Amino acid sequence: MKPIDPRLLRYSRSSRGFIFLLALVGALNAVLVIAQAYVLVNLICKFFQKHTSFHSAQSEVWLLLAIFGLRALLSFFNDRWSARASSKMRNELRSEVMRKVLSNDGINSKTLGTSGLAVLVTKGINDLDGYFAKFLPQLFIATFVPLAVGTVIGIFDWKSGLIVLLTLPLIPFFGILIGRYTASATEKKWKTLGVLSSYFLDLLSGLTTLKVYGRDKVQSKRLKEVGEQYRKETMQVLRISFLSSLALELVATLSVALLAVTIGLRLVNGSITLSTGLIILVLAPEVYWPIRQVSSYFHAASDGLAAFNQLFQILEAPERAAGVHIHGVTRVSWSRLLVAYPGRRDIVIPEGAIEAGSVHALVGPSGAGKSTLAGILMGFVKPNQGSVLIHSESGTHDLADVDIAEWRKQISWQPQEPKFPIGTLREILHHAQPSATDSELLAALAQVELYLADFPDGLETKLGTVSQKLSLGQMRKIALARAVLKDAPILILDEPTASIDDASEIKIAQLLDTLAAAGTLVLLITHREALASGALGYTHLGMQP
Fold this sequence. Notes:
The chain is of the alpha/beta class. The protein has 18 helices and 13 strands. The relative contact order is 0.09.
């Protein structure tokens, strides 16, 4: 990746003003560094050469203190602005990534997976804080300060300027060499983290099954092995970072020492004045230090930079063109669909159709593609082969030609494992129907056999926290109540009655029949025989593994 990627300016509006501010701070820093060196050397020469009294140089002392104060304030505000801008830019990137993922047929969902995407938009983007808050500000300081200071040194003494010109490129040269090695090691660590997160998510999802069949210890051992591999690769990156810091520090120290020895010898033979030699010695570290810091901050930002490629793969995906708006859906049909997942066998879904006013049970063994079909119908998965047709009052249209945002507004969805953001029960239900009154919320809960007495704090009960006191069955009922509350013409439910008692299951089955009779198209994914039973008048869509 380039030090400043132009694509960043395109996807983060805050970055434009931030970069302009950094350029201004870098220029001011260069002016203050030179002014500080000039005033300091002038004071030293007055005190030790001309034996000027402190009272006579009082104004210059105050000027020097003012410059020190200005540099401290500039550094303080630079850090503060950088931290705020970093937070804002990361939020903008996160929002843009999620917008692209949700609007573009679930782009990269098959390659990244749920866990990979979660790691990318959380840890991956959070790790960019080192890049935005540290690396970028120091990059601009390293652009202006060494150039300005080196020019001043060359003006005062061309021989010293020549030494600076010859030694200065050594730091970025070694920094680039070490940086490439660091980037490679960090990329390897990032991939291992992706494997670890995916493996951990799969393990949690199937933990009950593993316990039942006594395979939990084997998987626990495998998880420990992957975690140990990630630890080793993390330590390898840290080892490289510390060694590179030592190497760059050594180069900077030797460069300053070379200048100091040369100036010392020339002061002895009288070929350079004390004031000139002093100002070069005072300014010399300011030439090398900012570039040295850039290399150091690059290692701090390397974790975030490893996620940049995946971020921009999503952000640069072509936008889906505005599609057809449809209303009054009567039927949804699909041809034979094929979905290819990297590292897995292809999912093949036989042709089928679902009608409005009916409940359709989607049955089949695990891995047959039931959830994949639901993802295709909602526009989150794009099939590699086949097509989905939407039959409505406005005509028949291919799902690929339909406005995906408008299409999703007509769908209510309950996932197999509902997860809620932190909020009260009232807030969670309001996601589906913001204008609903408390009585309407309680009525929706009653439809799925949930009542106010079932919750410790009523509608103010907190959800989404680690310490929430609701069972998995209650969580599924809340998710179902929220889906029903949306009052959408299409209702897609994935295992709505798992972990729910038989009496509640019968009540929910009656609710689905009532919704279907009112014209709702209900697609039900379930393994529960009672819910998928033909005695309930359901249409079965058998799927082959």
